[in-house]
# Entry
Amino acid sequence: MGSEHRYGAVISETAHFLPERIVTNAEIEQHVDTSDEWIRERTGIVERRFLADDEPTSHMAVEVARSLVDKSGVDPLSIDLVIVATVTPDMFFPATACIVQGAIGARNAWAYDLSAACSGFVFALVTASQFIQNGAHRRVMVIGADKMSSILDMQDRNTCVLFGDGAGGVLLERSEDPSLGLVDFEHFSDGSNVDCLNVRGGGSAHPATHETVDKRLHYVRQDGRAVFKFAVVKMAEISATVLERNGLTGQDLALFVPHQANRRIIDAAADRMNLPADRVMVNIDHFANTTAGTIPIALSQACAEDRLKKGDFLLMTGVGAGLTWGSALFRWGV
Ligand code: UT7
# Structure
């Protein structure tokens, strides 16, 4: 697939932000009938971070954006587009991406949010890459950010143990070498499954009323078992498809950065690709599921550890509400 486009869409910088407050499984035990042992065994989660009540998702996204600008030294005026993937925007509108754009003074950019839940970052990254590969843009900022604590029902043990808050992002830039950057992707949605993971209240279907609040419709609701079965198959399937289509095997991958929803889902995908454990980014133990944040946070950690060098193949795969699922293969280097 790689060289049909004019330019490479390469990741030139990464950054992430995690709130300071650590919420342990022991703290969650105080809210619902659960146990540290159950949470660790069934999910791999040991702790997660919660943002302060008075800080919105944009607080984390702006921290990431500032860090991307500081680390890279790029002029914010040279940024063409800002995309924020999130399901917990500060407001229905305007987009959280506009808040980010304003905060960093990226006055020449356009900005919008992308809603694809846990697949949000990969969908946003691939969308952004199109503008770069076809020559329309030179520099795009892509951020995944979610304050899941703002939509968690702390009385529902099926969901409140699973999520955390966090954000990560990348600068995506034009390279004259089209064989670098995004090589291939595989994205899908299954809209016949909107019921198994959602927040029903507050939208135009169920605008906020006393009744929607009383019925707890403003919180995440999930049929965990159904989503698990789906995710465990699809994460492995699309990851393998993208590799095989490009003549690669797990052995050719320098790094696999999967969405962090459940340790068992990650392990199944790694098994299917025959990937050794040291090539798989796992941070669900410390940060839980930060929805659009998981993949860019893990990628940023990997870069901080110098785990990618020019020419390396990197695969990122997410599965989430919608249902949505997507996998993107990158060849590292600028
Ligand atoms: O990121 C978006 C995509 N989301 C996902 O990928 C999440 C996918 N789902 C999952 O990760 C898993 O399904 C869960 C971690 C949510 C649940 O694990 P599971 O192994 O599928 O458990 P289960 O739902 O089949 O429940 C097993 C038992 C049930 O009790 P019974 O009916 O067997 O008596 C649950 O009531 O575990 C019970 N249970 C809990 N027990 C202690 C469910 N939640 C809890 C809990 N603490 N927090």
Q: What stands out?
A: The mean pLDDT is 97. The first strand starts at residue 8 and ends at 17.
